[in-house]
C-alpha cells in the first residue's frame, strides 16, 4: 500500500473551506432574510405606538416590500449567471471577431476559415452526421424497448439495465466501447468482442477506430448506447399516461398491436417524443468527451466541440475557438425555436 | 376506428369463445416475440459493461492475450489490477486514489451551492410579486440553451486576470495555486448548473397549492419563513432529484475539469486522469478496465439507490443546457 494521507490533507482542508463558505453564505443569507422583516415589523410597531401616543392619525400600512426580498432571494443566482455565463458568452461573440491572441480585430476571418479549411469542413460534416444519427437511433431504440417491456414482468429491472449507462461517464463509456472495438493481429486471439464476432463469422479482424467514415459511426453507437435509456424512461412514462379508456376502446375495436402502436400510442406520445429528440439533439451537438477519449479527434472523427477545445486551449487560437463555439450556439437556436413552436401549438390545441 | 366495431363482441357465445381463444394465442405469440426482442436488446446493452467488469478481475497477461469470455472456461481471479491502479507507485500506473479524492472534493460543493442558490431564486420567481418577474424567469430559462463552450475562454481569463470595466475592477484576479484551484472548478460548475436548477425547482415549486401559501401569508408568516418551513420540506423530492442530476453531471464531467482543474494530480478528477490513461496507455487494459470501474462505481451506487428520484426529476424537466 502506497498511499500517503498527508498528501491528501490540503485537498480535504480545501473541501472544509468550501463547506464553511457554503454555510456562511447560505446561512448568512437566511439570517439576513429573517432579520429584515423583523426589523420592518419593529419599526412599524414603533410608528404605531408613536402615532397613538400623539393622537395623530395612524400611518397607513405600507405595501409589503416584496421587491426588496425578491432581490435578496435572486441576488446570488443572478450575479453568478451574469459573471459566469452572460458576460462570458457576449465576450466569446466578440472574441470570435478577433485574432488568436485576442489583440486585433479581424472581422469575419475566423468564420471564413471555418468554412474554407478542409479539416474543419470534415468536422462540420461529422457533427451533422452525429446530430442526425444519434437522436434518430436513440429515440427509436428507447421507444421500441419502452413498448416491448411495457407491463411486462420484471419491467423495473429490465428498464434499469438500459438506463444504467446514463450513470456512467462519457469517459467510462468510451473506455468500455474501446474495449469492445479492441484489435489484435490476425494470427492472435482477439480480445475485443466485435472482432471476435467478425472472426468467428469467418471475417478478418479490423482496426475499427482507424477507418473513416466507419469509425464515426462506431463512436455514434456509444452515444446511442448512453442516450437510449433517457429516451426510454421519458417515453415509457408518456405511454403509461395514455388514458386507459382510449386503449380499452381500441382493444374492444379489435385493433392489432401494430395498429395500436401507430394509431394510438404514437400520436398520444408525440409531445414527449419531441422533447426527447430535441434534448438528445442538443446533447449530441455538444459531444466532446467520447471523441476525445476514443480517438482524440484523429482519423477524421473530430466534431465541433472537440475542435473548439483544441483551437482555444491547445493551439491558443482563441478567435477560431470562439468562432466554433458561436457556431455551436447558432446551431442550437433552430432546434429550440422548433420546440417552442411545438409547445405553443400544443397549448392551442388543448 | 369507432365506426368499424367488429362483431366479435356481440357474436354468439360460441364464436365469441373461439375468437378470444385465437386472440389469446396470437397475443401470447406476440408477447413471446416481444419478450425475446426485449431480452436481446437488454443483453446487447449490458454486455459491454459486463465484459469490462469481468476483465478488470483477470490477470494482466490474460486480459492482453485472450478475450474476457474465456474467463468462464478458465476462471482466474485477481484484485491486483485494482491495487495497482489505485495505489501503484509507478507514475504510469494510474494512482487513482488521489484522483478519487479530487473528484470527491470537486463534487460536494459543486452540488450544494447550485441547489441552495437555485432554490432561493426559484422560490422568488414562483411565489413573490415584483416587477419584471416574468422577464427574469424567461432570461434564466433561456440561458439553458447557451452551450457552456460559449463561456469557457472568457471565464478562464476572468479567473486569471479578473474582471474590470472601464478601468474599474469588478472582480480581482483569483491567483490560485495548488489545491485552491478547486474553488475555480466549484465556481464554474455552480454557474453552469444554475439555469437548469432554477428551471427544475421552479417547475416543482409553482405547482404547490396556492391556498397553502395564502394561508401562511394571512397567518403573518414572512417569505423567508414560508420558504424554510413550508416550501423546502415539500419540494424535498425535487431537491433530491436535482442533487442526483448535479452529482452525476459533475462527477462524470470532463470538459469543465480539463479547463478549470488542469491536469495535475493535485486537482484533476478521475475523468481527466482516465482520459489521459486512455490516450497515452491505450493498450494497458488491466489499468483501463479497473480504472474505469473505480470511476463508475460511485455514480452507479448513487443512481441505483436513488433511481426513483432521478426518474421523477427527469420527467419534470428534461432539458439540460
TrEMBL record, chain A:
Cellular compartments annotated: Cell membrane
Keyword list (alphabetical) reads: Cell membrane, Membrane, Transmembrane, Transmembrane helix, Transport
Gene3D superfamilies, per database record: MetI-like (1.10.3720.10)
Pfam families given in the database record = BPD_transp_1
User: InterPro entries, per this entry?
Assistant: ABC_transporter_permease, MetI-like, MetI-like_sf
**Record's CDD domains?**
TM_PBP2 (cd06261)
How does the protein's chain sit in the membrane according to the entry?
Answer: Multi-pass membrane protein
Q: What is the first-listed, main subcellular location in coarse terms?
A: membrane
Task: One GO cellular component term, please give it.
Answer: plasma membrane
**Keyword Cell membrane: yes or no?**
yes
Transmembrane stretches, start-end:
12-33, 68-90, 128-149, 161-180, 217-239, 260-283, 322-340
Could you provide one GO biological process annotation from this protein's UniProt record?
transmembrane transport
Top-rank taxon of the source lineage equals Bacteria
The entry assigns this protein to a family as follows: Belongs to the binding-protein-dependent transport system permease family.
Name by which UniProt lists this protein = ABC transporter permease
UniProtKB/TrEMBL annotation, chain B:
Alphabetical list of InterPro entries matching this protein: MetI-like, MetI-like_sf
Superkingdom per UniProt: Bacteria
Q: What is this protein called?
A: Sugar ABC transporter permease
Q: Where in the cell is it found?
A: Cell membrane
Question: What transmembrane ranges does the database entry give?
Answer: 33-54, 99-123, 135-163, 183-205, 226-248, 254-275, 287-306
Q: Which UniProt keywords apply?
A: Cell membrane, Membrane, Transmembrane, Transmembrane helix, Transport
Q: Where is the signal peptide?
A: none
Residue ranges the record marks as coiled coil: none
Listed under GO cellular component are: plasma membrane
Q: Which organism is it from?
A: Micromonospora endophytica
Q: What family does the Swiss-Prot or TrEMBL record give for this protein?
A: Belongs to the binding-protein-dependent transport system permease family.
Any Pfam family from its record, for instance, is BPD_transp_1
Bilayer topology term = Multi-pass membrane protein
Q: Which GO terms describe its biological process?
A: transmembrane transport
Q: Does the keyword Plastid apply?
A: no
Amino acid at each position: 500500500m502506497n498511499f500517503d494521507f498527508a498528501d491528501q490533507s490540503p485537498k480535504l482542508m480545501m473541501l472544509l473551506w468550501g463547506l464553511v463558505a457554503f454555510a456562511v453564505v447560505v446561512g448568512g443569507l437566511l439570517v439576513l432574510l429573517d432579520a429584515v422583516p423583523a426589523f420592518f415589523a419593529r419599526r412599524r410597531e414603533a410608528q404605531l405606538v408613536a402615532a397613538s401616543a400623539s393622537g395623530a392619525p395612524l400611518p397607513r400600512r405600507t405595501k409589503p416590500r416584496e421587491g426588496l426580498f425578491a432581490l435578496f432571494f435572486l441576488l446570488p443566482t443572478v450575479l453568478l449567471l451574469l459573471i459566469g455565463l452572460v458576460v462570458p458568452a457576449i465576450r466569446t461573440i466578440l472574441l470570435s471577431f478577433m485574432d488568436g491572441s485576442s489583440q486585433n480585430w479581424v472581422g469575419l476571418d475566423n468564420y471564413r476559415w471555418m468554412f474554407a479549411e478542409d479539416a474543419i469542413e470534415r468536422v462540420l460534416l461529422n457533427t451533422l452526421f452525429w446530430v442526425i444519427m444519434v437522436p434518430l437511433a436513440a429515440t427509436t431504440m428507447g421507444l421500441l424497448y419502452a413498448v416491448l417491456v411495457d407491463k411486462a414482468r420484471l419491467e423495473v429491472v429490465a428498464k434499469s439495465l438500459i438506463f444504467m449507462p446514463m450513470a456512467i461517464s462519457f469517459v467510462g463509456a468510451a473506455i468500455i466501447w474501446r474495449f469492445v472495438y479492441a484489435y489484435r493481429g490476425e494470427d492472435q486471439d482477439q480480445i475485443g468482442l466485435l472482432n471476435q464476432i467478425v472472426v468467428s463469422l469467418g471475417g478478418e479482424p479490423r482496426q475499427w477506430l482507424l477507418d473513416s467514415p466507419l469509425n464515426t459511426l462506431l463512436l455514434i453507437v456509444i452515444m446511442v448506447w448512453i442516450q437510449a435509456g433517457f429516451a426510454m424512461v421519458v417515453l415509457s412514462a408518456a405511454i403509461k399516461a395514455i388514458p386507459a379508456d382510449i386503449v380499452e376502446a381500441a382493444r374492444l375495436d379489435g385493433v392489432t398491436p401494430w395498429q395500436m402502436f401507430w394509431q394510438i400510442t404514437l400520436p398520444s406520445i408525440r409531445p414527449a417524443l419531441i422533447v426527447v429528440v430535441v434534448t438528445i439533439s442538443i446533447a449530441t451537438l455538444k459531444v466532446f468527451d467520447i471523441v476525445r477519449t476514443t480517438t482524440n479527434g484523429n482519423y477524421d472523427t473530430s466534431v465541433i466541440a472537440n475542435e473548439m477545445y483544441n483551437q482555444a486551449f491547445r493551439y491558443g487560437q482563441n478567435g477560431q475557438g470562439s468562432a466554433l463555439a458561436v457556431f455551436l450556439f447558432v446551431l442550437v437556436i433552430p432546434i429550440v425555436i422548433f420546440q417552442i413552436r411545438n409547445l405553443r401549438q400544443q397549448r392551442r390545441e388543448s | 376506428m369507432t365506426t368499424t366495431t367488429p362483431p366479435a363482441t356481440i357474436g354468439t357465445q360460441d364464436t365469441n369463445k373461439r375468437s378470444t381463444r385465437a386472440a389469446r394465442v396470437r397475443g401470447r405469440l406476440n408477447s413471446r416475440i416481444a419478450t425475446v426482442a426485449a431480452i436481446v436488446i437488454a443483453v446487447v446493452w449490458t454486455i459491454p459493461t459486463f465484459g469490462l467488469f469481468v476483465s478488470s478481475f483477470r490477470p494482466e497477461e490474460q486480459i492482453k492475450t485472450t478475450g474476457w469470455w474465456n474467463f468462464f472456461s478458465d476462471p482466474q481471479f485477481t484484485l491486483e489490477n485494482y491495487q495497482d491502479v489505485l495505489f501503484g507507485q509507478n507514475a504510469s500506473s494510474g494512482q487513482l486514489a488521489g484522483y478519487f479524492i479530487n473528484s470527491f472534493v470537486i463534487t460536494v460543493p459543486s452540488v450544494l451551492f447550485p441547489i441552495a442558490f437555485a432554490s432561493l431564486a426559484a422560490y422568488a420567481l414562483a411565489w413573490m410579486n415584483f416587477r419584471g418577474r416574468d422577464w427574469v424567469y424567461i432570461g434564466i430559462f433561456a440561458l439553458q440553451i447557451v452551450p457552456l463552450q460559449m463561456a469557457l475562454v472568457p471565464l478562464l481569463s476572468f479567473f486569471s486576470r479578473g474582471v474590470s470595466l472601464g478601468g474599474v475592477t469588478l472582480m480581482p484576479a483569483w491567483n490560485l495555486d495548488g489545491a485552491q484551484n478547486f474553488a475555480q472548478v466549484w465556481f464554474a460548475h455552480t454557474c453552469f448548473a444554475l439555469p437548469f436548477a432554477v428551471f427544475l425547482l421552479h417547475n416543482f415549486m409553482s405547482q404547490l397549492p396556492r391556498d397553502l401559501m395564502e394561508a401562511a401569508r394571512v397567518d403573518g408568516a414572512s417569505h423567508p419563513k414560508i420558504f424554510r418551513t413550508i416550501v423546502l420540506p415539500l419540494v424535498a423530492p425535487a431537491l433530491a432529484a436535482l442533487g442526483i442530476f448535479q452529482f452525476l453531471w459533475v462527477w462524470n464531467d470532463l470538459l469543465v475539469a480539463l479547463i478549470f482543474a488542469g491536469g495535475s494530480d493535485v486537482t484533476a478528477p478521475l475523468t481527466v486522469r482516465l482520459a489521459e490513461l486512455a490516450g497515452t496507455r491505450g493498450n494497458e487494459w488491466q489499468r483501463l478496465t479497473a480504472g474505469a470501474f473505480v470511476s463508475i462505481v460511485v455514480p452507479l451506487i448513487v443512481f441505483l439507490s436513488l433511481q426513483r428520484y432521478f426518474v421523477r426529476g427527469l420527467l419534470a424537466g428534461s432539458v439540460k443546457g
